[in-house]
Design a protein that fits this description.
globular
């Protein structure tokens, strides 16, 4: 599967984020990732803060977004490659109908990483997400180290090495 780093769906429907520059509170590389708390597809609340001490890939996506759908199998492989004690993925869905779209999608593709529901797009806005997929990597100390716009091939050796180096880095 070939990925273009610039491929992505334009702004999530209903999002208040205008552009990357227009969001002064946007989560930025080099700064602490804003904590959030969302329900997963089982109805349990999950917070970013609960994964402090792990490297976390936060991925903003939607079921209707073709580049998001193309990227997710490589995210699943990345998730299975690394140990849960060191690495986590939080896939934040931008689907406005939430569980109604996301649960069947997850069941069909059998993704095992946590999928969180952001129906109101508050977390998308908090992170300044104006197009999806957008991926943010947070280090063990809660600092944003990388921000990717568009679909990423997480099986690419450069992406795997990036995550591996972050895991091996002392906190």
């Amino acid at each position: 599967m070939t990925f273009s780093p610039l491929s992505g769906c334009t702004k999530a429907p209903g999002s208040n984020a205008k552009t990357e520059e227009a969001s002064p509170k946007m989560a930025k590389v080099g700064f602490t990732a804003p904590d959030f708390r969302l329900k997963n597809i089982k109805g349990e609340f999950i917070s970013l803060e609960s994964f402090r001490s792990k490297v976390v890939l936060v991925n903003f996506w939607a079921t209707w977004c073709a580049p998001c759908r193309a990227e997710m199998p490589s995210m699943e492989e990345l998730y299975r490659h690394f140990n849960r004690k060191d690495f986590e993925i939080l896939a934040v869905s931008s689907d406005e109908d939430g569980l109604r779209s996301v649960k069947p999608f997850q069941e069909e593709y059998q993704f095992t990483f946590p999928i969180l529901i952001d129906e109101t797009l508050q977390i998308n806005d908090l992170y300044g997400v104006s197009s999806i997929p957008t991926s943010i990597i947070v280090d063990r100390n809660g600092i944003i180290t990388n921000r990717f716009f568009g679909a990423v091939d997480w099986n690419d050796p450069r992406q795997r090495d990036l995550v591996d180096q972050m895991i091996k880095s002392p906190s």
